[in-house]
Amino acid sequence: MVAELSIIKGKMKNKIVFVLTVFLFYSFAVQAQVQVSKEPFHKNVLENNYIRLLNVWLKPGDTSLFHIHSTPSVFLVFTTANTVSQIKGGDWENVQYVKGSSWYRSFFQDTLIHRVAMSDTVPLHITDVEILSSFDTRTERTPLEFPLLYENEKVFAYTLTKNSFTTSIINNRGPMIAGLVAGKDVHYINSATGKKKEIKAGDYLYIAPASSFYFSFKGKEKSNMVLFEIK
């Protein structure tokens, strides 16, 4: 009888250990694969009906969790840095991010699950702007009179360098995000109130739809600003 009780207790203990192991494994799996907006290095700094702006900083030695990109997004790189990236189930690959580069990816039937690790001695800074909703699909808009970086079904992306800034007033447009990659003495000026706000290098500014404004640039050095307009 004592031997039988010992066997029963042993089986129960093994079963409890098994259940706990499965629970811990499942918990780790859930934590290790998250939507990009929940990944700790992707800071959600702005969210509204149209966009979710994720400010991404990876320092030397950092490695992100596996995270899921499934929402149409535009990206802007603020620093040049070398990384290694691993698509889930694949091998690590070298990826270099170049300051000032920008791109769009719809992730439609193209969901990406990956993680990124720093292999450089300098930090990586990127903004990932997820496009949550279109602004006005009924109106066919033409781009602004800025150099067009690219255009697609979701967004206009413009690039403004030293010679591209004008004092022409912009109004009745969709929501925008301005990101200053390089330069200084760049200001956003509300043409209705006259109030202005400086945009600093490495920073970004959200511009609400239907705003009336213009940009001012009085710096002498080179500048590079990327302006995203949601269609």
Could you walk me through the main structural features you see in this protein, from its secondary elements to its overall organization?
- A hairpin with a 3-residue loop joins β11 and β12.
- This protein has 1 helix and 18 strands.
- About 8% of the residues have low confidence.
- It folds into 2 domains: 98 residues, Jelly Rolls (Sandwich), CATH 2.60.120; 83 residues, Sandwich (Jelly Rolls), CATH 2.60.120.
- The chain is mainly beta and 231 residues long.
Can you give me a brief rundown of this structure?
The protein is mainly beta. It is 13% helix and 44% strand.
Task: Sum up the structure in keywords.
231 residues, mainly beta, Jelly Rolls, 2 domains, 5-stranded antiparallel β-sheet, 13% helix, globular
Task: Give the oligomer, counting copies of the same chain as homo and different chains as hetero.
Answer: single chain
Strand content: 35-45%
Number of domains: 2
Q: Could you tell me the radius of gyration in angstroms? A: 24 Å
Mean pLDDT: 89
CATH topology of the largest domain: Jelly Rolls
Tell me, briefly, the overall form. Answer: globular
Number of strands: 18
The arrangement of helices and strands along the chain is: HEEEEEEEEEEEEEEEEEE
Number of helices: 1
CATH class of the largest domain: Mainly Beta
Please give the order of strands in the largest beta sheet. 1-4-9-6-7
Main β-sheet description: 5 strands, mixed
Structural class: mainly beta
Kindly report how far apart the N and C termini lie.
77 Å
